[in-house]
Write a structure and sequence with these properties.
This protein is mainly β. It has strands at about 5, 10-15, 35-40, 50. The protein has a 4-stranded mixed beta sheet, with no helix packed on it. It binds zinc ion. Zinc ion binds near residues 13 and 25.
């Protein structure tokens, strides 16, 4: 599963399959610049928090 990290908020979002490179399922990064975002090849949540809208039951809003 791929993820998108918002480096500003330190939150991991789920990458939307078939969408553009840094598009997330929840759309929270739509207005973020690409400088603020990193593509992840794996979901890393030890040092980051998960987006509550991308990951049901995980993390907080
Ligand atoms: Zn999200």
């Amino acid at each position: 599963m791929d993820g998108v990290l918002n480096e500003v908020t330190n939150t991991v979002h789920k990458h939307e399959q078939g969408a553009s490179e840094l598009q997330t399922v929840c759309g929270a990064t739509f207005h973020c610049s690409h400088d603020e975002l990193s593509r992840l090849t794996a979901i890393e949540t030890r040092t980051t928090s998960k987006c509550g809208r991308c990951f049901e039951g995980g993390g907080s809003y």
